[in-house]
Amino acid sequence: MLSVVPSPIVVRAPAKVNLHLGVGDLREDGYHDLTTVFQALSLSDDVQIAPAAALRVKVTGEGADEVPTDRGNLVWQAAVKLADLGGRAPLVEFAITKGIPVAGGMAGGSADAAAALVGLNDLWELGLGRTELSDIAAELGSDVPFSLHGGTALGRGRGEKLLPVLSRNTFHWVLALAKGGLSTPAVFRELDRLREVGDPPRLGSPEDLLQALASGESAQLAPLLGNDLQAAALSLKPDLRRTLRAGVGAGALAGIVSGSGPTCAFLCESEEAAVTVAAELAGAGVCRSVRTAHGPVPGARRIIGDN
Ligand code: C5P
């Protein structure tokens, strides 16, 4: 008799870049109201999920040493939350393969959390719909709903209230990964400090950027990219100025700090242009390593074990 060995569940979840990140004033709950436009990129993490005798997290890939393997990891918190909801014990092992830079401003931890939600919903047959998963995602972190959603989306509130955005064509990016990470709360605090001592410019409405996305023209989109957190990231890591200059000098249409940084994202005219910019940046000694990516791509989705 044939015995059927169940294939493992593997969920792939994308990195994100904020094409527009407008940050409001500090709220009483310690968060800031955002108006942001997210794009999901082809750089991704894979999360394998299997039943186990105890809750365990293993991490491999670049930067794996810096990722917590206990309740400090959002996949652990996702498992505890969904197990509570399903009235069961969180007996699973996660094997995370990192492709997204750790503490890089690209929502790597959020991507893993979104992958855990999708995978556990299937493994435990919880039958949760996208809206329910998105509500749980928002409790785990501000960027987790977008990691589930993917594509291109307008984010409001803490970034968790999403509306899909029409985006024509594929955009080509070069990502310059920095030496060392930046802590997201520290970057938001630095922005609050800069706003106390001065008046750094604030982004206006993303309306023109949304139109450029609908047109699908990278040259139209490039000058409209903006990030209110960039001044704070540059204040904490002044070397990033050199990285941003080098990317544009190498032929990118524009460069911005991705989210809270320190990864810098460069929009390029084409895939070929991105390869050229990546090669030149890699040789310029202004970053730890370089990746090319494209977007938009889908949110967290099963790539193995999907019947
Ligand atoms: O939601 P998440 O846990 O990812 O946020 C991490 C930290 O980033 C928050 O504790 C807060 O300091 C800062 N943050 C913020 N405003 C947001 C999102 C995050 O101040 N909209």
Automatic annotation (TrEMBL):
Q: Where is the active site?
A: K16, D143
Reactions catalysed, semicolon-separated, are: 4-CDP-2-C-methyl-D-erythritol + ATP = 4-CDP-2-C-methyl-D-erythritol 2-phosphate + ADP + H(+)
Task: Give a GO biological-process term.
Answer: terpenoid biosynthetic process
Per the record, the pathway is: Isoprenoid biosynthesis; isopentenyl diphosphate biosynthesis via DXP pathway; isopentenyl diphosphate from 1-deoxy-D-xylulose 5-phosphate: step 3/6
Signal peptide range equals none
**For the GHMP kinase C-terminal domain, which residue ranges apply?**
210-283
Tell me the keywords, alphabetical order. Answer: ATP-binding, Isoprene biosynthesis, Kinase, Nucleotide-binding, Transferase
**A family per Pfam:** GHMP_kinases_N
- Chain positions recorded as ATP binding sites: P101, V102, A103, G104, G105, M106, A107, G108, G109, S110, A111
Q: What superkingdom does the record give? A: Bacteria
* InterPro entries hit by this protein: GHMP_kinase_C_dom, GHMP_kinase_C_sf, GHMP_kinase_N_dom, IspE, Ribosomal_Su5_D2-typ_SF, Ribsml_uS5_D2-typ_fold_subgr
EC numbers for this chain: 2.7.1.148
- GO MF annotations, alphabetized: 4-(cytidine 5'-diphospho)-2-C-methyl-D-erythritol kinase activity; ATP binding
Q: What are the residue boundaries of the GHMP kinase N-terminal domain, all occurrences included?
A: 73-151
Q: Report the function annotation for this chain.
A: Catalyzes the phosphorylation of the position 2 hydroxy group of 4-diphosphocytidyl-2C-methyl-D-erythritol.
Say which family it is in. Belongs to the GHMP kinase family. IspE subfamily.
PANTHER family referenced in this protein's UniProt entry, alphabetically:
4-DIPHOSPHOCYTIDYL-2-C-METHYL-D-ERYTHRITOL KINASE, CHLOROPLASTIC
Write the protein's name. Answer: 4-diphosphocytidyl-2-C-methyl-D-erythritol kinase
Q: What organism does this protein naturally occur in?
A: Nocardia aurantiaca
Query: What gene name does this entry carry?
Result: ispE
